[in-house]
Every structure is written in structure tokens, then in C-alpha cells.
Input
Amino acid sequence: MRCSRFGAAALAAFAALPAQHAAAADDTVQTIALTVFLLAGIAIIGVFVWVARTTAAPRDADIAAAYRLRRVLFLSAMALVVIVLGFTLPRSPYASNGATDRLVYATALQFAFVYSSEPVTSREDLGKVETITDLEVPAGSTVEFRVTSLDVNHNFAIYDEAGVLVAQVQAMPGYVNRLRVKIDEPGRYTVLCLEYCGLAHHVMSSAFIVTAPADTSRG
Amino acid sequence: MQRLDRNTLYWMGVTLVVFPILVLLGLLMRAVQAEAATGLQALFYPAMTLHGLGMAGLWFVASLAAANRVLMRYIEPSAAVNRVALLGTLVGVVLLIAATLIGGFAPGWYFLYPLPLHGTWPTWSTIAFLVALAVLGVAWLLWSLDLLRAIAKKYTLRHALAWHYIGGASEPVVPPAIVISTVSLIVCVACLVAAVLVLLGFLGDFVLGAPADALLMKNLTFFFGHVLVNLSLYLAVAVVYDVLPEYAGRPWKTNKIVAISWNCVLVIVLFAYAHHLYMDFVQPVSLHYIGQIASYSSAIPAAVVTIFGALLLVYHSRMRWNLTSLFMYLGLIGWAIGGVGAVIDSTIAVNFKLHNTLWVPAHFHTYMLLGLVPMVLGYFYHACQEAAPQQESAGLHRLLFWLFALGSAGFLLMFYFSGADSVPRRFALYPELIESGSSLALIGLISASVALLGFLIYLWETGRRWVKALAG
Ligand code: HEM
Ligand SMILES: [Cu+2]
Ligand SMILES: [Cu+2]
Output
């Protein structure tokens, strides 16, 4: 179980994540999230258990001291919020307008994904636009997926071979979401739909291949 | 002995009967996901829809009923309106059960537009659902407005929102339950208005064939859903503010800080919903950032004022530990821990990896199942024991407390582990790629059954008193 691997080193790794996420095959963010959560959870339980135990020896509380402590807690909480915001907001995955090596239109519909080099805006387009059946992209290149939907809300989530969620974006009818990814690790990537879209939601999937640098010359 | 009014008794009865049935649907889902009940797979999505809508609605009315009873110490809500809300709720529930279990209506609990109109379920089930939504919306709106009316009869808005405390005065005394309820009811009206707009969007498409804007509908839907769930929690917290002091033997009063914090909540809760749309990259980026900032900010008043205040109340107090105080204390722990899970997921960079994985049900089940639910159940026991006192068995209370707490914790941990393992939420069956999903589901199933056992003992304890109170 990958989830049982946590480490403080993970925090350092997060700092090293480039702002425009390199979608490498790792679960660093997930590991940090779980580690922080478990540590905070244990701390909260610890404090509550400790306070509950003090009721075995009733006495008057020192309200002035408590309010001083609350002040310290408030200021530290504010500081923590500001620091974490400053650190995480710039790491948001929203598309920038940098250079793109490959543009792929990904259109979702109940219950499939269709890839093409031209936009698909209606069901009629499906017959006209040439679709890509075996999508391949070279490792290390920046690919921009233009994701939309022809019916209900779907989602476009890229999983690596180890089953780790690498990147995702929603697929909404009437809108085009731009998901830019740079995948360094060659292999077969599975695309799942992470927005509930009907009874076959869990079998809606697709895949693409990230080719090793050596065979990027292949046509 | 303190008499319990009929309406409150009925709301309690509904909660105590409906809750275990909805839990069974939850167990069914985990069983299907664990591949232990593959024959029932077709039931998964209707069960998910009914479980989610049922639980969100049930615990909203349960906390409102609990808060209503607490407020009756200070104000006079109308019993007739309360009864209308009860009847409306029952009609809504019957329609929902028919739509989902008979009709197979299954767009998930937040019925994201336009999915309800694009399903394999029959049209009548969609209609039944939309009617249920309208009936519930009207019934709850009436109830909320009546409570606001009753508050307004005794307090001015300035006093009910404790603005005079912020100004430095401490008279007239306004109990925290009034302040928190006023805040909650105001956002409740806002949230029900959003629900009406969503309903109109659906009707425009369904009846007139004019499609609504999917992004606008999603914003409205999550504004509604997010606010509804949060205000249910605040109402439960209002009850804790009122009742826990009786057990701690100390007062817990409104003061300047409490006033400021709940007024901040009133504003912040209206913006935090935006964290549900982080993965809609077309949404203006400023709204995403507002979502993260509001989500982070909402943790400060909760943690530094309410949770800290509760701990201070209990610290070295002459606490009387019984089922009520244990459950309320547990509820505060669950609220705090679920809040941490929520704040982590409200970080955009993290949400990119956790959005719509099982981390999402993990955190909201934490502050519901281990937060709101024990707070309200603690209150229900308190009210029944007051109305029909019986000898309390400390041993039995401890036993059921631990069964419920540990069983729920195990169930929740499996959701968190799954989320961190990239297991999607709302998958009836997991693809081979995500191997850990089904084994974690099995442990979740077993743990949740233990929690249910704890609840059944609770039901025996509270139910006996409830029956006596009803007869008496
Ligand atoms: C022991 C008790 C419970 C069990 C076993 C349980 C189980 C589940 C399961 C298995 C799911 C589906 C998860 C997924 O794959 O997406 C779910 C969803 C949900 N549950 Fe619970 N649950 C319990 C208690 C509660 C409570 C107390 C609430 C209170 C609000 C609640 C509200 C919801 C909601 C809103 C959903 C989402 C439904 C949807 O995605 O459409 N549950 N629950
Ligand atoms: Cu889909
Ligand atoms: Cu889907």
C-alpha cells in the first residue's frame, strides 16, 4: 500500500515541485496531504484527551492566561495561513500561455473520450473531424489537452501505470478547459472520468502512450 | 423533568428511524466496492443518490430541530409552521425514495445539471425528484423564515448578530445559540434561494427546452450544497454551546471575540464554496483564489474561537461525563479533524490530485459522522433523558461510545487512505489499475458495521426514553 509511506522528506520534495507541475509519476502531494492530516489528527486527539483528563482534578481556570494563549494561537494561525497561501497559490495548475509541443482536443461524452487535432463542438462534428485512435506523445514534451464535453459534466484524469493520479481537469458542456502537462516518464497512461456522469461512469476510460525519447522520431 | 414538545419528538423519531436505514445503504455501497456484493451492483448509484440526499437532508432537519428546541428557551417559534415543515419533509422523502429505489433515478446527491436530464431513468422519476426538491425547499424555507421571525420578535438584528458586543457593550445578554442560529438561518435563506434558481434552471431546460449555462448551474449547485452542509454543522454547534455548559458546570457566554468570529463566518461561508470548482479551469482564476483564501480563513474562527472555547470550558471543570457530554465532545473532535481534511483539500495545488477521489467523502463524512451526528445524537439523548429520566448505565454508555467512535474512525481512515491512493469517489467498482480500492472498502465495511452496532445500542438507550416521553 503506497499510502503507508510517509516521510518528512516529502515536504522538501514539495518545495522542489516546479510551479507549472511536472506531471512525474510520483505521489508526493498525496503523501504530504496524508502525512499532514494524520499528524494534525493525532495532535487534535492528543489535546482533547489531555483536556478531558484534567476534569479529574477540577479547579478554577485562569481565564487571563487562557486569553493570552488564544492570542498567541490566533496570531500563529494567521501567520500559518499567510505562509501556506503564499507557498501553495503559485503552485496552482492553471494553464499559462507558454510554448506547447502538442495540442490535443479531448472530448468527453457518455461514456467515452474522443481525441482529435481539431475541436469537436457537437455530435455532428464527430463524423466530420478526424479522430486520433492511438494517441502517442513524446516524454518531456508539453502537451495541452483542450477538454470539453458533449453532454453532461465529465472529468479527464490522467493516471500513471502505478495507478497514481497525475493530473486532472473537468469536462464541461459548452466550455473548454485547458490542461497542460509535461510527462517525463514513458509508459501507458490511463484516463479516467472523475465526475459522476451516469451509470457507466466507473468504466469510462481511455489511454495514451508516452513514448521514450529514443523513439520520438517515429512518425 | 422538562417536557418535550410533540414536534421535537417527531423529528427525533424520524431521525432515529431513517438514519440506520441510510447507513445500511452506505454499507451496501462499500460492500459492492469491496466486491462482496457484486449481485447488487445495479443498486449502487440509486443507493448512492438516496444515501447522499437522505443524509444531507436528514442531518439538516435534525440539527434544525435540535436548534429549534434549544431556541425555545429564548424565543417562540410557531408550532404550526414546524408541523408543516415536518409534513413537507415526509412528502419529500417519500418522493425521493420512489424516484431512486423504484425509478432508479441516480444523478448523485448534488444532481449536477444537466445529468438528471441525461440519464437512463424514466422521466417520471426526474419529475418526482424535482417536485420533491420544490416541496423540501418550500418547507425548509418556511421553517427558517419562521425562526428568523421569532428571533426578530425578541431581538433586533443588531442584537441577534451580537454587534453590540463588537461595539464593546455586554447588555442586553444574547446567548451564543441565538447568535449562531441567526447567522445560520440567514445563510440558510441564501442557500435555499440558490436552490430555487437551480430548480428554475432545470425547469427551463426540461419544460421549455432552453438549456442553462452549465458553469453557472454548477456554481449555484455548490453554493447551495456547501452552505447547506456547513450551516447544518453550525446549528449543531449552537446546540453544543447551549448544552455542554450544563455538563461542565460553567457558563459559555457570548463575548466580543465570539461575536466577531461568527459574523466573519457569516461572510466567509458564502465564498468558500468556490473550492468545489477548482478543476473547472475556465472559472475565473480570481474565484479559485478567493475559494482557497476563504476556505483557509474559515478555519480560524472555528478553531481559535469555538474549539478553543470548548476546550477552555472543559479544562479542569467539574465535568459530568455521560452519553451526551461524551458525544458532544466527540463531535467537536470530529469537526476539528474533518476541518483539517477539508483545509488540506481546499489547497488548489493539492486539490489537483485529490479532487473527486475518496478524500472528499473522507473529510465530509468526518465532520458529519464524527461531528454533527454525535453532537445532535448527544442532544437527543439529553432531551429524552430530561423528559423521561431513567437510571443511566455508565458502562453501557462507554461501550456504545467506543464502538461508535472507533468503528467510525476505521471507516473514515479507509476513505482517507483510498483518497491518498488516488481511488476515485463514486465508482461502483474499481478498475484493476487502482488495486487498493476494494480491499480498503472491505475494511471500511467492517468498521462501519461496528459503528452501526454502537448506534443500535444508542438507539436502545434513547429510544426507550423517547417512547416514554411520547406516552407521557
Ligand atoms: C456509517 C455510516 C455511513 C456509511 C457506511 C457511509 C457510506 C458511504 C459511501 C460508501 C459513500 C459513497 C462513497 C463513494 O464511493 O463516493 C457515501 C457517500 C455519501 N455519504 Fe455516507 N456513509 C455514512 C454516513 C453518512 C453521513 C452521516 C452522512 C451525512 C451527511 C453521509 C453523507 C454522504 C453523502 C452526501 C455522500 C455522497 C453521495 C454522492 O456522492 O452522491 N454519509 N457514504
Ligand atoms: Cu464521464
Ligand atoms: Cu464520469
Observations:
- The first helix of chain B runs from residue 6 to 33.
